[in-house]
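ARCHIVE RECORD
Type: protein–small molecule complex
Small molecule: zinc ion
Source of inputs: curated submission
Record status: active
Notes field left blank by submitter.
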Amino acid sequence: MSAWEQNEEIQIFRDYLRIPTVQPENGYESCVAFIIKQADSLGLPYKVYRPGGADQPIVVITWQGTNPELQSIMLNSHMDVVAVFPEYWTHPPFGAEIDSEGRIFARGAQDMKCVGMQHLATIRALKNAGIKLKRTIHITFVPDEEAGGKLGMYKFVRTDDFKNMNVGFSLEEGCASPDEVFPVFYAERCMWRIHLRISGTTGHGSLLHENTAGCKLNYLLEKFMSFRQQEVDRLKNDSNLEIGDVTSINLTKINGGVQSNVVPSLIVAVFDVRVSLDVDHDEFDKMIQTWCKEAGGGVEVVYEIKEPKVEATKLDSSNIFWTAFKSVFDELDLKTKELVCPAGTDSRYLRELGIPALGFSPMQFTIPTLHAHDEYLKAETYLNGIEIYKKLVPRLANS
Ligand code: ZN
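STRUCTURE (tokenized, with ligand):
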């Protein structure tokens, strides 16, 4: 038995990992029961809201501050995890087994059941030390993040229950870092899922019709892919840029045709686009419409998702929570790198409302294995993370 197995916090973390909350058939109810048990053991009140439906619970544990009229701090994590393919794992994905190096293997070990339990561990440590904080802290556990959050945080921030929480700042997931530098996410690109419904002349496969769906698809693919290449080059040639700073475009689906000797009347091509912060949305939209006209017309652009522009969280003295956040890292002599998150998280729904939100998961010297087989986190890294939160949470709540 490794020394880690005796540690109470590690035990709680591993118990939480053993609850399989996989999208889409989630196991939220046992997860909620577990979190309520944690709230009870902390002696803190909790509420369960279900704005996204009876099977989409949100748990809010509240530690009231000494000055509760101040805006509160939200420590958020999502309960759900992505699918697993157990045949590719060397450990059972919901066994939370720990090896001789102290690596805990489980889906959610990095994304992001670690952070949810670290939040609770931090509050436990602070409470046990008799510490009182000025601002109220809400520790929130939300569903549906891995499916886009529409039934979770998106719905929740639109309720009076959320408004009554008077949230002034939110801390939520970041990403593991293979080196010593902690990534801190302050913004996200906008997600656009574009379906091009390309109609064309149909007919016998032996002829040479004009304006076929295939000819139009060819033209449009060339346009999308050359734009993509520009972004690839921009990223390659400027060492200051990270993936979150450029627009990504990927062709993700193509459907069409009924028979191999019939020219199809419709082909649908789907693109996953993440629009970078510096892009003018109207102009980008116009450019796509122009390409569709140039392709020969008859192309309908349908947006499965078209996220609006969202202001980034300010990283200057105008944001007292940023100043507080950064001061802790300076004091601990820990390096941070401020980045635009390449993927989507629930932070975007808070930023949309003008609430500053940072994405941070305390996992340095850790290979990112989120969404991968054999996702793991070292016990030591997990416990070190709690030490960082023990400085960070009071600083934020007292600022
Ligand atoms: Zn996540």
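CURATOR ANNOTATION: The mean pLDDT is 96.
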